[in-house]
Design brief:
- It contains 3 helices and 9 strands; from the N terminus they run ββαββββββαβα.
- The strands form 3 sheets. A 4-stranded parallel beta sheet has the order 1-2-3-4, covered by helices on one side.
- It starts with a strand and ends with a helix.
Length: 127
């Protein structure tokens, strides 16, 4: 059995789930402070960490050993993971925001994956 924990948006909830088995994958779906992601890595000690940025994230690299899945794929446990960071462009200034046309262009040749992680599902509805 594959053990996965996904975290997003609410930093105060990191650590409220007690792992009852070894954690295979920790997935961050964005809008977390880097210290919260690092806290989850330290607490859960996952074998693999994958993440995408949310629209409220700063433009910075994730803490080691996190794999940034934005427009990337990785295979783990015979599953292919892929991701897309950010949200629709709802304001002129900010990081990780795209128009629908930009998102369509960026994902036009994205390969098929088993698990696709994205920050805002509504944004991906038309893709």
């Amino acid at each position: 059995m594959l053990n996965i924990i996904a975290i997003a948006d609410d930093d105060s909830l990191v650590g409220h789930i007690e792992p009852n088995a070894e954690l295979d994958i920790l997935i961050s779906l964005g809008d977390l402070y880097d210290v919260s992601l690092q806290k989850a890595i330290d607490l859960y000690d996952p074998e693999h960490v994958m993440a995408i940025s949310g629209n409220h994230c700063i433009d910075a690299e994730f803490p080691i050993p996190t794999i940034d899945l934005h427009l990337q794929t990785r295979e783990r446990f015979r599953l292919t993971f892929g991701g897309f960071a950010g949200s629709w462009q709802y304001k002129k200034v900010g990081h990780h925001m795209y128009t629908q046309n930009e998102a369509l262009q960026l994902l036009q040749n994205f390969p098929t994956v088993d698990i696709f992680i994205v920050h805002l599902l509504e944004f991906m509805r038309e893709i």
